[in-house]
Specification:
two-stranded antiparallel ribbon; methyltransferase activity; 9-stranded mixed sheet; methyltransferase; alpha/beta; SAM-dependent_MTases_sf; binds S-adenosylmethionine; Protein N-lysine methyltransferase METTL21A
């Protein structure tokens, strides 16, 4: 009997793992939003961990080696005190996502070369820059008043000499109808976002945009800071109505860039 039970457990575990979209490794399927939150907070204990292991908010720039290049991303620490302004400095989830992409490409689990990528809420732009260095043709997006710093960081870090792909910056406000440039001639192969699930008020607009950007060949990677369980649960609950959501385990991240305050999800539209 015991043997049968453990086989049942193994089967249940295996059934909950699957590959999603263009990411070549099986991930754990998120079955239920509230259960996922319980699990994440219990296993990772985010509140007891140090915030921002890889970034410093008081610093004027973030320096990071990625894809064989020294990246230098300008930050605007003084803007952090301006009400409503986010994205003026980097958070750990951006570093985790950027280095995850590099690691996944280097280990053959992901191909970005020649793929069309849209990054949402790019902020200072690290993730989109790394995707371009890895060969993708990236549109980095944000609200209109964030675009100048974003453009400066893209110009400083991605050029024809060092990038295998390309990067450009464009305005994209979540919840607005999308311009054709994002979805024509077909939806992008990848959508990226780091620390974009942080306000309950923005969740529905973010999901509207994810829905509009996603075709049947679109793979979405979202890295989130584990700061607010209610907001993440709200996001997952609504997202799971239309998307299959997978949790990418830390064993698949870049080994030097893991943080228990960050979670990484992959989403594909349900067929
Ligand atoms: C917490 S920051 C994260 C920035 C960056 N991805 C990172 O990891 O450092 C959230 C980003 O989402 C952008 N954002 C917030 N609401 C938005 C909206 N309604 N439409 C488009 N971008 C938005 C902000 O301007 C900001 O750049």
């Amino acid at each position: 009997m015991e043997g049968m039970e453990s086989r049942d457990d193994e089967e249940a575990e295996a059934a909950a793992m699957r590959t999603m979209g263009s990411y070549g490794v099986a991930v754990r399927v998120v079955e239920e939003a509230a259960e996922e939150i319980l699990l994440l907070w219990a296993i990772q204990q985010p509140a007891s961990r140090r915030q921002n292991e890889f970034v410093r908010h008081s610093s004027l720039s973030l320096r990071l080696d990625a894809c064989g290049h020294h990246l230098s991303i300008l930050q605007s620490p003084s803007s952090m005190s301006t009400p409503g302004v986010t994205g003026a400095v980097m958070w750990d989830s951006g570093v985790v996502l950027g280095k995850f992409l590099e690691h996944a490409v280097d280990s053959g689990r992901l191909v970005l070369q020649g793929k069309r990528v849209v990054e949402l809420g790019s902020g200072c732009g690290l993730v989109g820059c790394i995707a371009a260095l890895l060969g993708a043709d990236v549109i980095l997006t944000d609200l209109p008043d964030r675009l100048r710093l974003l453009k400066k960081n893209v110009e400083d870090n991605v050029d024809e000499g060092n990038a295998r792909g390309s990067a450009r910056v464009s305005e994209l406000t979540w919840g607005d109808e999308l311009d054709a440039e994002f979805i024509e001639p077909s939806p992008p192969e990848f959508v990226l976002g780091s620390d974009v699930i942080y306000s309950e008020g923005a969740v529905k607009d973010l999901l509207f945009t994810l829905r509009q950007l996603s075709g049947c060949h679109t793979t979405i990677f979202l890295a989130g800071e584990l700061r607010n369980d209610a907001v993440l649960e709200f996001f997952l609950e609504i997202a799971m109505e239309e998307f299959l959501v997978g949790h990418v385990d830390q064993t698949q991240w870049h080994p030097d860039y893991c943080s228990n305050r960050v979670a990484l999800f992959v989403l594909v539209k349900k067929s």
